[in-house]
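Cast an eye over this sequence plus tokens and explain the fold to me:
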Amino acid sequence: MLPMTSLTAAPSSRPALPHMLRPSVFASDFAYLILGLPIGIASFTVAVTGVSLAAGLLITLLGIPVLLLTLVACRAFAAVERARAAYVLGEPIAAPERTWKRDGVWETTKAVVTDPGAWRDLVWSAALMPITVATLLDEIQRLRTA
């Protein structure tokens, strides 16, 4: 009878993929970048058009409701952005607690317009498209050279 020898698997000669090239990470980053473009275009359009229209109509006082609607829309875009970022980061991002509901139309208007978070959301909505385009172009260039 022949002696039995046990064979062990040779260590893998192929190195592990870098973190950013793993399929799950690559897919989530790719989805984040691709979805960022239409969301960035929409948020940029709403923010810039809303502020411009509000400034132009402010003399007739119709600019106030336009500005309020723009700030509320930018708050919604910021919530979508937090959800997208949470997907990529793998952990939830807490939304700031801001209550705009007050005891009257004028008090609610003052609460919305004086909220620093609403203005940050507006600035982010306007900046998202240029940032997304630059990041997407950089990512395409990086993948071409890799």
Remarks:
- The two ends are 55 Å apart (CA to CA).
- DSSP finds four helices and no strands in the chain.
